[in-house]
Amino acid sequence: MIVRSLTPDLSVSPQIAVADIATLLTLGFRSIVCHRPDGEAPDQPNFEEIAQAAKAAGLRAVHQPVVPGQASDEQAAAFAALCAELPKPVVAYCRTGTRSATLWALSQAGRLSVAEIERTTANAGYDLGAVVRRIANAGKAPLDVVEAEHSVVIVGGGAAGIAVASSLRARDPSLDIAIIDPADVHYYQPGWTLVGAGIFDAADTARTMASRVPRGVRWLKAAVVAFEPDSHAVVLEGCRRVRYQRLVVCPGIKVDWHGVEGLVETLGHNGVTSNYRFDLAPYTAELVGALRGGKALFTQPPMPIKCAGAPQKAMYLSCDTWRRNGTLQNTQVQFFNAGAALFGVPDYVPALMKYVEAYGIDLRFGHALKSIDGPRRRAIFERTLPDGSKETVETGFDMIHVVPPQTAPDFIRASPLADAAGWIDVDPGTLRHKRYEDIYALGDATSTTNAKTAAAARKQAPVVAHNVLASLGRVGGLATYDGYGSCPLTVERGKVVLAEFLYGGKVAPSFPAWLLDGTRPSRLAWFLKERILPPLYWDGMLKGREWMARPTLADR
């Protein structure tokens, strides 16, 4: 936690954690203002968690969520009124502190000179030159100011973004590339299933973003808030604009924690957990290890979601733990799936059903989690009946692993890049945008029908890298993505059903059946999941080494 002072009564900070509340109290702060909407990142505590900890410490906490890049004069005035009313001193935070500093800067228009505003924010470590120009321009952001220009701009520094940057660099080291991402940490999210099972340590799934950005690629530590495809530019938080010759968009997916009523108030407490958040996966392991019987629920929301197999992976590994410690027979396990099938590719269902039966799991299809009451330990589902009508189903639990509904990020859904459903509208083969020829996309936010997994991004990155260079006239031929996705279904500790498939659910094994039959649980597939895939991710995929991922080229 880095707290930066703007005035004697106001400081700003990047995202704070629950554990930071005690430090803020020691530093003398009496009030906290959060400017960050919930659910912007997979390691972000919801405001309710911060508010509960603040209240217990005797601090005031207020939520004034501001969408990145959309800080208005009205919100700035409301923030100024809050600061005047709250016990002082106040600390305000968002992802990086930029939104909070921006609101303060806008609130000082007419009170301080633009030079004083710029000097104060610069002394605190924030470059708000574009915001200051907006203030000087009577509240309107100048549209003709471009602060940077690159041959290729990549939006998103997750698995897809780092992989495509590395693949581009491996093909053409002279290429001018920039990655835009505000995060300090890069996560190996496929590892969180094993964190939730107590097999991996959470810390082993994290690296600093600075250590992952490829050498020679510029990292712009900021949030993209808007796209201007007609002028070949993106707008960053703080009103800065960056131009490009080619744009690659891969911001990941939004996990909507507010999509289940009451969930944010109880996450991490009352037996409510989720492996879809970095800091909650260890709580899953804690709950599973402590449970000695009762009712355990596992949920899966409507598709699409990141890694469709992850909800049941958590369930199988939990059941295996209970079987090993002798408490499975005392535990009622139920899987509430909003869909109509256990897995989308039928070839893998028989092997999974054997484990469902062996663990005594009660499958409930057509059930979508709508609300949860943590203190009462009650979950309410909406069940879709065969005739299309719906009914409400309520049940209790001793623990529940929740997978919330998921969407494309807000700034994607509101952009001209989105299709009617909110996803980036790309050709499923070339991954080129259907309307803007200088824009490509890959990863979880695209409109493609493949599984949203890291394995899919690993295959997509070389395709995009080649096609971007081809569009710039630097290589020949055209690469095509075939929809490959992979889901190592951890059915027990030591065995995995390795699902691999293409568009349309066509099975596409990477190994001969005599070596590894993906339709059967395998110890070799577990070794692959536990020992091979993590280094393949960190030292292969993220470094542009396209082992078993180099695309086949076709003439234009």
Description:
The chain has 556 residues and is of the alpha/beta class. It folds into 3 domains: 4-136, Alpha-Beta Complex (Protein-Tyrosine Phosphatase, Chain A); 148-253 and 412-481 and 524-554, FAD/NAD(P)-binding domain, CATH 3.50.50.60; 256-407, FAD/NAD(P)-binding domain, CATH 3.50.50. Helix content is 28%, strand content 23%. Strands 6, 7, 10, 11, 12, 13 and 24 form a 7-stranded mixed sheet that branches. Strands 1-2-5-3-4 form a 5-stranded mixed sheet, sandwiched between helices. The N and C termini lie far apart (52 Å). The model has no long low-confidence stretch (mean pLDDT 95).
Number of helices: 16
Would you tell me the structural class of the helices and strands?
alpha/beta
What would you report as the Rg, rounded to the nearest angstrom? 24 Å
Distance between the termini: 52 Å
The CATH superfamily of the largest domain turns out to be FAD/NAD(P)-binding domain
Number of strands: 28
Helix content: 25-40%
Q: CATH first level of the largest domain: which class? A: Alpha Beta
Q: Based on Cα principal axes, name the global outline.
A: globular
Overall pLDDT: 95
Provide the domain count: 3
In the CATH hierarchy, the third-tier topology of the largest domain is known as FAD/NAD(P)-binding domain
CATH architecture of the largest domain: 3-Layer(bba) Sandwich
Low-confidence stretches: none
Instruction: Report the portion of residues in β strands.
Output: 15-25%
Largest sheet: 7 strands, mixed
